[in-house]
Every structure is written in structure tokens, then in C-alpha cells.
Design a protein that fits this description.
- The chain is mainly alpha-helical and 238 residues long.
- It is 76% helix and 0% strand.
- It is a multi-pass membrane protein.
- Keywords: Cell membrane, Membrane, Transmembrane, Transmembrane helix, Transport.
Length: 238
């Protein structure tokens, strides 16, 4: 069998990202609606999505702004919600760390949950891929997602309140994260971290400015790290 080309891996990435259209479209439409209802103009809504490209963080910021939260809380919370991108970057470094800096900058700009999840699973499945092939796959997945995120954001911003409430577009948010997170729960540490974070977030829903989410995330990471440490120690002593 001849080796795969960058063109081949690009199309593989494009196909891998295609199913996410089912959740990206309603997710981005919902953001467009929420942003305009919060007082954003069409230009501001599009610019926000274009320059930030961070769905969950954008929703958080818009919600806090609509609640007249202090600017420092809006910035800190948005950064905390997006802190997972730092972990994504760390796990991609062994695969893409030697790529040219311009390519790494583009990878960072295009990094969203769906692109990362598809890419890291493909890299683990195809360790023989070159950096060029891995980049091609990454950009292929991005091509299925980022343009649609921007386009449907504008659809939501333009149509706004004309979308019937019965459409329940907010279903896309939890479904998207469940689809990405579930395949990654491969160890007891992962499951423990997810369980603690979910339980804590439910108990802290009344916390102001969505601070309960930040606390729950921190607790989940602490528990996950502790469980992993104990499991590693147990394995070493066995």
C-alpha cells in the first residue's frame, strides 16, 4: 500500500469533521441569537467569533456581560473556561511541536474542542504520519468546522428572535461536549475527574457570575490528578 499523502490526510480530516456540522450549526446560530439579544451589533458578533473562535468562552462572556458583571470577572472567567486549550496544546506538542512557527500559530488559532478531539485520536491511531500529514489532517477537520461556525453565527445574529423557541437550539451545547468527552474517559482518573466536576457544578449552580463552574473544574482536576497519582503509586509497588 503506497504511503498516504498530505492531500489524502486532509480529506480524511475533512470527513472526520463533517458529522460535527449537526451540532456546530445550532450551536453557532444560538450564539448569534444570544449575542444580538445581549446588544451586540452584527459586526461585533461576527468579529467576536472571528477573532476569538471559542464557543463556550464566548457564551460565558456574553452571559456575564448581560448580567453586568465586573470586567475583571468576565475576563477571568472566560480565560478559565478556555484554560483547557492549554492542556490541548500540551498534548499536541509531541505531534506538532516541530512544525514551523507560522503553522503552529495557525493551529492555535483554529483550535476548538472538536478539531482537537478529532486530531488527537487520529494521531494516536496513525503514529507513522509525518508532521505535514498531521497538519493536513488538522486543517481538514478545521475546514469542516470553522467556516460554518462563522457563517451560522451570522445566521443566528440576522434571524435573532425569529427562530421559534421550540427549536431548542441549546441542545447542541451539552451534546457536543458529551460526544467529545465520552471517548476520552479511558481511565479511573478520567472518570473520577468528570464525576467530581459534574457533581460540584450541579451543587454550585447558585454561585454568582458562574463561578461555580470554575470551582467545579478545579476540583475535578485535583481529584483526577490525585487518583492518577495513587494508581501510579499502586502500580509501582505491585
Amino acid at each position: 500500500m503506497p504511503p498516504e499523502s498530505t492531500k489524502s490526510t486532509y480529506w480524511q480530516g475533512l470527513r472526520a469533521g463533517a458529522p460535527f456540522i449537526l451540532v456546530i450549526a445550532p450551536f453557532s446560530i444560538l450564539f448569534g441569537v444570544v449575542a444580538t439579544e445581549a446588544g451586540f451589533t452584527l459586526l461585533e458578533t461576527f468579529s467576536y467569533s472571528f477573532f476569538v473562535v471559542a464557543g463556550a468562552s464566548q457564551f460565558t462572556a456574553v452571559q456575564l456581560l448581560s448580567e453586568h458583571a465586573p470586567t475583571v470577572i468576565v475576563i477571568a472567567t472566560s480565560l478559565a473556561v478556555n484554560l483547557r486549550m492549554a492542556m490541548y496544546s500540551a498534548s499536541l506538542t509531541p505531534h506538532l511541536g516541530k512544525a514551523p512557527i507560522s503553522m503552529r500559530a495557525l493551529v492555535a488559532y483554529l483550535m476548538v474542542d472538536q478539531v482537537y478531539a478529532s486530531a488527537i485520536l487520529a494521531y494516536e491511531k496513525h503514529p507513522q504520519w509525518s508532521i505535514a500529514q498531521k497538519l493536513a489532517y488538522y486543517f481538514g477537520v478545521s475546514s469542516s468546522i470553522i467556516p460554518l461556525w462563522l457563517a451560522f453565527t451570522m445566521v443566528g445574529a440576522i434571524t435573532g428572535s425569529a427562530i421559534p423557541a421550540g427549536f431548542a437550539l441549546d441542545f447542541a451545547v451539552p451534546i457536543t461536549f458529551l460526544a467529545m468527552v465520552a471517548p476520552m474517559l479511558r481511565s479511573i482518573a478520567h472518570v473520577a475527574a468528570a464525576f467530581v466536576a459534574i457533581a460540584a457544578s450541579l451543587m454550585l449552580t447558585s454561585a454568582p457570575y458562574s463561578l461555580g463552574l470554575l470551582i467545579a473544574g478545579a476540583l475535578g482536576m485535583i481529584v483526577g490528578a490525585q487518583v492518577e497519582f495513587l494508581m501510579s503509586r499502586k502500580a509501582a509497588l505491585a
